[in-house]
Amino acid sequence: MAGEPQDDCLFCKIVAGRIPATVVRETDTTLAFRDINPQAPTHVLVIPKAHHRDAAALAAADPALTADVLRETEAVAAEENLDSYRTVFNTGSGAGQTVFHVHAHVLGGRGLQWPPG
């Protein structure tokens, strides 16, 4: 069920404290932690604590939580002293989503080219 922790979800396990992560921010509804395979000098993932498969599912189920996640991307960028950064949501395996718990990538600390990969 949407919003409920999933036993087989890596990010749900991180939220529950069963798998360690380098946490940089936490709110009542979100968790932000460093990506273990960074693609930029700063690469932080911002996730809702509630399980939703992807950005579209989150937006449909809980617009307020969607806003929380986006608000936290800016807070992470500010704490990391990024004057410019990229926020990315991959939706579906064809777009590079490998963990099916919605997450925003906050990337910065170097020039980011357009179009991306």
From TrEMBL:
Please report the organism this UniProt entry assigns to the protein.
Streptomyces griseoaurantiacus M045
Under the heading PANTHER family, the entry gives: HISTIDINE TRIAD HIT PROTEIN
Q: Which CDD domains match?
A: PKCI_related (cd01276)
Q: What is this protein called?
A: Hit-family protein
* Domain HIT, first and last residues per copy: 10-117
Q: Molecular function terms in GO for this entry? A: catalytic activity
Motif range (Histidine triad motif): 101-105
The record ties this protein, via Pfam families, to: HIT
Active site (catalytic residues): H103
Reading the lineage from the top rank, the first entry is Bacteria
